[in-house]
Design brief:
mainly beta, 4-stranded antiparallel beta sheet
Length: about 325
């Protein structure tokens, strides 16, 4: 009978790469082969996914004529190990910020920022959050890694995730003055000035005018029917869950004024020494569609009887008294 033999198989350890790990090495630890005898080791172990297995196999001893004489030896096997450890990678999910537009925001972008994937592997990101209205969230979710045969192999990776941020902010609204064909207030006492606001009609439009003129609200165009007097017009659109309030659109419609010389005439029979009093640069406001109407100046005529006045534009006498 031949000597007792002690044989140890090789050990290997590596990071996961999607391929089989094998080790065909062995070592005769103790014992002596008879001259002319050889050891043939047939490795039967392999490992691809993360884990550890014994590196088992079969031992055959042949003589110089290649005859199997294994049974003539007592063989003690000490198996090594094959180990695959997780592959370390860092991934970063996408970030995105946009104003509210009524559409759902979802960002599925993911990038391997440290380490790498094996050749022909791919990564997929299923985000936790998607939303339409203004909101901000960490772009967290589930990472899935596929091998080159589209098998899910995520468990073979040690993944550090850096989350981006997805954000919907309130949309801006604008109001502006349009179709202003004249700048003289009073050219058309019922003239229409248009304003347009970009936000939805559900957002209230606030309107003010120094002459208390009125507004007619249409779809997105707001028509202002100008009354009389000076008109300082302001329009803005109210904010909401999805919109910022607009800035104030302002427009001043100037008063159409002209200056005239006005002569006041008094009863000379009662007041022979008064004669006529001329007030210059008295202001009148035009009322289109009728005669120009003089606005009485703020004058005090003690004990005088006013007959009327005449302006030098129309040469018409207006009857009044003080």
């Amino acid at each position: 009978k031949n000597d007792d033999l002690s044989i140890k198989t090789g050990s290997s350890k590596r990071e996961y790469d999607g391929t089989d790990l094998t080790n065909n090495n062995y070592e005769l630890i103790s014992g002596i082969l008879t001259p002319g005898h050889t050891i043939v080791y047939n490795n039967t172990s392999k490992i691809k996914d993360v884990g550890t297995i014994d590196n088992t196999g079969s031992i055959i001893i042949r003589d110089s004529e290649s005859k199997d004489i294994t049974d003539t030896y007592h063989i003690d096997m000490d198996y090594g190990t094959l180990s695959v450890v997780k592959r370390n990678i860092t991934v970063t999910t996408g970030s995105e910020s946009r104003q509210y537009n009524g559409e759902e925001l979802e960002n599925r972008k993911v990038t391997v920022t440290t380490g790498s994937l094996p050749t022909n592997f791919r990564i997929k990101f299923n985000p936790t959050y998607s939303f339409v209205h203004p909101r901000s969230e960490e772009n967290s979710g589930t990472i899935i890694i596929y091998d080159n045969n589209d098998n899910i192999v995520t468990d073979n990776f040690n993944i550090t995730t850096v989350y981006g941020t997805i954000e919907v902010t309130k949309a801006d609204q604008t109001c502006s003055i349009i179709n202003v064909s004249n700048t003289k207030y009073g050219t058309n006492p019922n003239g229409t000035y248009d304003y347009t606001c970009s936000g939805p009609t559900t957002n209230a439009v606030h309107y003010s005018s120094s002459d208390d003129s009125k507004i007619t609200v249409g779809n997105k165009t707001y028509k202002i029917n100008v009354g009389s007097g000076s008109a300082d017009i302001e329009v803005y659109q109210e904010g909401s869950q999805d919109y910022n309030a607009s800035s104030v659109a302002k427009h001043t419609i100037n008063i159409a004024t002209e200056k005239f010389n006005v002569t006041y005439t008094y009863n000379k029979d009662l007041y022979p020494n008064v004669g006529t009093v001329t007030i210059t640069n008295s202001v009148i406001s035009e009322s289109y569609g009728s005669d120009a109407v003089l606005q009485s100046p703020n004058v005090t005529v003690s004990d005088w009887k006013l007959i009327g006045w005449t302006d030098d534009k129309t040469s018409k006498t207006k009857k009044d008294s003080i």
